[in-house]
Amino acid sequence: MNIDTFRDYCLAKKGVTEGLPFGPDNLVLKVMGKMFSIVSLDEVPLRANLKCDPERAIELREEYEDNILPGYHMNKQHWNTLVLDGRLDPKLVFELIDHSYELVVNGLTAKLKKELEDL
Known about the structure:
Elements: H1 3-11, E1 16-19, E2 26-31, E3 34-40, E4 46-51, H2 54-63, E5 68-70, E6 79-84, H3 90-106, H4 110-118
Antiparallel strand pairs: 1-2, 2-3, 3-4, 4-6, 5-6
């Protein structure tokens, strides 16, 4: 998967913004100001950090040990790094983006959830 496909999929979600707060090599995607993905733009192959349920994170790392790793520079219990070298099915990548987005949305305050709903 390339950066354009990944980025476009994320930006199509409600309430998502992008930025480069950690410098030009790390694209951060947020929903209502809360981070749900960081993409390392300088990595070949492309790497993306996504939030994940801790139990599911372990299962994914075991099943896809070469392409789903503990989150680089993140809380390894709650974040995975996906190596997007073409070996992961795009459907799985989109599912994991959705999962990360939903985890963050579910953790939003009631006020932010209402603002997101009203968008």
